[in-house]
Write a structure and sequence with these properties.
Layout lengths: L2 H35 L2 E2 L7 E2 L3 H8 L2 H31 L7 H13 L2 H11 L6 H8 L14 H9 L4 H12 L3 H9 L4 H29 L3 H7 L12 H11 L3 H29 L6
Antiparallel strand pairs: 1-2
């Protein structure tokens, strides 16, 4: 290396050193440490003691709560992600029309996305209150007694799924960007062929949106499998009623900070990582069959 190149390398490393130090200290070290702790019995107070695969064995064979939390999370993911995609695409199609004041409508539908999660959770806790909530109050006006929503074992997860649709504005904006990239010549060709609106949506819009659908699908899957803050706020961190909202991340949190089972919680965290990784890779591999990129 020349003197000039060495100076540039030194200066570059100097400017990047805060990030490098932060990454090593606050990201890489905790990741490696958690992997080690997952094979240990560790309660923070005492040094970790190596126990091998016992934490993983206990999760699969000795802890029914683990399976309950996994079921709750997968149930939520299976419904919230597809519904979120459908609602966000529908909103994007409506807000892509050439109508006066459309920027105002887009802003209104995007606003819930920037509301702090804790604030929106408190708001929905009132909206879904079975006694004084807004939804049941409106239902009583027409002679219908509403369900218990978040306070009901059978309605708690559907309540959270309904609440998740409140935040589809982020995906909606991405779909709007995707719609803007669809070549207008394809719609013109479809008009010449006499295609209806539904046929244009099915054979032009959806295929051209498949890269955007893949992106929102992956992000929605990752976020839903890590769903924590809303359920923590709305149930006080207890996963009530009858553990119907004991989602996997909440159970992980309780094991680590309520019961101080850091080794056990680390094992849960690595299992969650593997599930997310496997699901993401499966989507990316399957995308070769249904995602169409412009120019192909």
């Amino acid at each position: 290396m020349t003197r000039h190149e060495r100076r540039d390398l030194r200066n570059g490393l100097l400017f990047a050193s805060p990030y490098i130090a932060g990454f090593l200290l606050f990201t890489l070290y905790p990741v490696v440490a958690s992997l080690y702790y997952s094979f240990c019995q560790y309660n923070v107070v005492r040094p970790p003691a190596w126990i091998g695969w016992e934490n993983y064995y206990a999760l699969f064979f000795d802890d029914p709560q683990f399976w309950k939390s996994l079921y709750n999370t997968l149930y939520f993911t299976a419904f919230s992600v597809p519904l979120g995609l459908v609602f966000s695409i529908g909103l994007a199609m409506l807000l892509n029309q050439k109508v006066r004041g459309m920027s105002v409508y887009r802003t209104v539908f995007f606003l819930p996305t920037i509301v702090p999660i804790v604030a929106s959770s408190v708001l929905w806790l009132w909206v879904l209150n079975p006694e004084s909530g807004l939804i049941n109050g409106m239902l009583r006006q027409i002679g219908i007694e509403g369900p218990g929503w978040i306070a009901s074992e059978h309605w708690s997860k559907p309540s959270l799924i309904l609440m998740s649709l409140w935040g589809v504005g982020g995906a909606m904006v991405i779909f709007l960007a995707g719609l803007a990239e669809v070549p207008q010549t394809l719609y013109e060709a479809a008009d010449i062929d006499g295609a209806s609106r539904w046929m244009k949506f099915r054979h032009v819009t959806v295929p051209m949106l498949t890269p955007t659908i893949l992106f929102n699908l992956v992000m929605g899957l990752i976020n839903s499998l890590q769903y924590f803050t809303q359920v923590y706020v709305m149930t006080g961190g207890k996963g009530t009623p009858v553990d119907s909202t004991m989602f996997y991340p909440l159970y992980l949190y309780r094991n680590s900070f309520y019961y101080l089972r850091m080794g056990y919680a680390s094992a849960m965290a690595w299992l969650l990582f593997l599930v997310i990784l496997a699901a993401t890779l499966a989507l990316l591999v399957s995308s070769k069959r249904w995602v169409h990129y412009h120019g192909e």
